[in-house]
DNA sequence: TGCTCAAACTAGCGGCGTAAGTTTTCATCC
DNA sequence: GGATGAAAACTTACGCCGCTAGTTTGAGCA
């Protein structure tokens, strides 16, 4: 088949199909040939639209990051904004857990990731955090969110009671996998609350009162 | 070459060589043939010692986890023990960042990972935390440590100032990569302090005073 | 009308994980 | 001490992988 009247592929169609395949079968199961087949096309045709497979994965990762809501940084105080951002960020990643190991390697050159970093860092600096501190806080929350979405904590435990016989405190561990959703979310919220609580205390100690009122929001 | 008088391979030699290659060239660059070549052997010979490549990676991941120090749970109060464990855990992962995406997928059936989970959970329950809370706390810290080791936050930013022109708050972001070590460690410590501070506050609210003294340590 | 580009194709390279079967050595048991 | 069986290396090969090169033909423009 030569060039068709109507283009069969587009970057957008490739990205959404790739994400669907990754969601369904995992990152390792995505090959250019399988992706192309799902699009009704031969493998190498993808290279008319992307230079490498990694470029496709970057676009997929960025499409996930683009769904994160950072608008809270204009609307709430820094602490509540951080919470809302973290919740939205985690929700975006948890909806597509299989891409997280790839996505979590850093913003690289992905525009949505850069826009997110900009919003978070800007929001913290505007609230009065010193720049170095703002960087650290953004990093710490990204660590936490990425880690929480990287792999389900609960699903990591195999559903095989015999495996835990040698570990006295893990006698119930085989049941974790069955409560994956509530364990993972409960742990996430608990840790996020603790993290923000600790940051708020630090803010009271080191930032509040030292800045003119206009520097806060 | 048939069976040699002295075995050329051993599980241990395979694991340490695999870890060295992963450290040097990344997880994706580890193939059975390259690993075998580094061991002076043909590719399929590895299958006399491991059933699959994943089994090799599991053993590598477990050898890293085995270096984590959980002895603090017998020696310090729960909060200080968590801190020391988290620091040791992160150091172990940060020493071999390329294996972290694989390792972070959960303890699975890896014995060192299970022993670690057992020590942490047991330590928290002994200190009086309710079992469900102990699970959540262990998960939250694992999220944080895994996220912090998954990829350097700082190295995720490309050293190309032009890339950040469109993002007003990121004008200094290209300098992050140069300070990778101090940024990553500073962020880790800041977040860990905040997390533990928040957990301690929660402990005061919900656990302390409600338990007989013998349940604490 | 003719030129150039775009988007599909086919063919194929080198590398991958690993299955199958072969050869030789070592350890064990009558 | 000779037979036996497992162990540990080997060679060969299959089907998949990412990707390159070169080809074909429709689309858009001069």
Quaternary structure state of the chains depicted: homodimer
Describe the sheet with the most strands of chain A.
none
The two chains with the largest interface, and their residue counts, are:
A-B, 65 and 65 residues
End-to-end C-alpha gap of chain A: 60 Å
Number of helices of chain A: 9
Task: Characterize the structure shown.
Two copies of one chain form a homodimer. Chain A has nine helices and no strands. By secondary structure, chain A is mainly α. Chain A folds into two domains: 40 residues, Homeodomain-like (Arc Repressor Mutant, subunit A), CATH 1.10.10.60; 147 residues, Tetracycline Repressor, domain 2 (Orthogonal Bundle), CATH 1.10.357.10. At the A-B interface, helix 7, helix 8 and helix 9 of A face helix 7, helix 8 and helix 9 of B. Chain A binds a DNA duplex (30 and 30 nucleotides) through loops.
Annotation keywords:
homodimer; mainly alpha; 2 domains; DNA-binding; about 0% strand; Arc Repressor Mutant, subunit A; about 220 residues; Tetracycline Repressor, domain 2
In brief, what are we looking at here?
2 copies of one chain form a homodimer. Chain A has 217 residues and is mainly α. Chain A is built from 9 helices and no strands.
Task: Give the secondary structure arrangement, pairings included.
The structure is a homodimer of 217-residue chains.
Chain A: H1 11-25, H2 32-38, H3 53-65, H4 72-75, H5 78-94, H6 100-103, H7 111-126, H8 131-150, H9 180-206
Chain A binds a DNA duplex (30 and 30 nucleotides) through loops.
């Amino acid at each position: 088949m030569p060039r068709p009247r109507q283009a069969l592929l587009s970057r957008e169609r490739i990205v959404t199909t790739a994400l669907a395949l990754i969601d369904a079968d995992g990152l390792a199961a995505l090959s250019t040939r399988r992706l192309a087949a799902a699009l009704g096309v031969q493998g190498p045709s993808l290279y008319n639209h992307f230079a490498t497979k990694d470029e496709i994965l970057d676009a997929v990762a960025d499409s996930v990051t683009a769904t994160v809501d950072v608008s809270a940084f204009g609307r709430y105080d820094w602490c509540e904004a951080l919470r809302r951002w973290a919740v939205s960020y985690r929700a975006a990643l948890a909806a597509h857990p299989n891409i997280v190991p790839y996505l979590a390697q850093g913003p690289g050159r992905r525009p949505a990731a850069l826009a997110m970093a900009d919003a978070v860092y800007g929001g913290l600096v505007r609230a009065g955090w010193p720049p170095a501190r703002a960087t650290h806080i953004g990093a710490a929350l990204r660590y936490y969110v990425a880690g929480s979405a990287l792999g389900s904590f609960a699903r990591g435990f195999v559903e095989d009671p015999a495996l835990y016989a040698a570990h006295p405190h893990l006698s119930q561990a085989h049941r974790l996998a069955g409560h994956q959703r509530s364990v993972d979310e409960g742990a996430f919220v608990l840790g996020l609350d603790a993290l923000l609580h600790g940051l708020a205390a630090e803010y009271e100690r080191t930032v509040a009162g030292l800045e003119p009122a206009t520097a806060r929001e």
